[in-house]
Amino acid sequence: MVMMNDDTRNLPTVIGAQVPSMAQEMGILHDEHLITLFLNRPRPKQWSKMTRKAYHHDLEAFLKFIDGTPLAQVTYVQLVEYCYSLQHYASATQQRMINVMRSLFLFAHRLGYMVRNPSVLIAAPRVPIRATHKRSLSVSEAQKLLETARRLDRAYLMVVLLITTGVRVEELCQGNWGDLYEDMRGNIGWMVRGKGDKDRPVLIRPDVWALLQEFRIKNGLNPELDHRDKTPLIFTRRLTRYRQNGIRDMMYRLSDAAGLSRRISPHILRHTCATFSLEAEAPLLQVQRQMGHESLRTTERYLHDIRELSESAGAYINQVSI
Hints:
Elements: H1 21-26, H2 31-40, H3 49-66, H4 76-85, H5 91-111, H6 139-149, H7 153-165, H8 169-174, E1 180-182, E2 188-193, E3 199-204, H9 206-218, H10 244-257, H11 266-279, H12 284-291, H13 296-307
Antiparallel strand pairs: 1-2, 2-3
């Protein structure tokens, strides 16, 4: 075994022999440092704060599974066992957790932090593309949910905002009153900070704007626009910011109280916004901008599913009488 230099002897061992010279030159001498650099390195398309947090949580779960084994000593067999341990998660979650682990090993190998990459033969599961109408509310389901939520001002405002704006739950949680503004035509907009820290303007309908102002007045806050106001757009009874899990749990309770056959998540309300907009013949590009879809293909899937039955080949069969 090659001995380490005196200045690295007290650091955690990363491989059985020595730390590769390239990694030494870059100052990467242990796993924690490598992961920090991996999550925060400059990228052509920067990860958002929420994405980095999710990936960090995934890598913590991986490190817990390998139970102290240095990354450079992890074997292919361990990675296979880790993949099998994720089978109780949804396919999309499995795909994310495996892909971020594979990306970490690829990053480490390219830097020379490890001699081999044991994840080369590991593949993440494919996520089936589900029809969007299965992830959206029907009109009757949306009406039931709204009627049930109407008795609870906070819950009602959340449902209304999610359905009419299509924002993601994390975007709703981080939204501030100061993010609202009025344009030259008197429309109220919400400058939403989305994925990749990209801002996009979202219209606040006049009836929704009235609900927001009423909510502020009830809680003793100024209902007028103020770009300096950093209070949350929707807040708890203690005037604190809602967490994502809190909003999800509230939506689940509302679903049960409304007697719906399934539990409605905030993301289903986002899908509902896109579906309802396109069904009302909103322009495709306009819906793409509002939803913050990077690719137009994502938005087109909603349009395809809406037209799926009305444009079905079965509608053309007229040769026989039934």
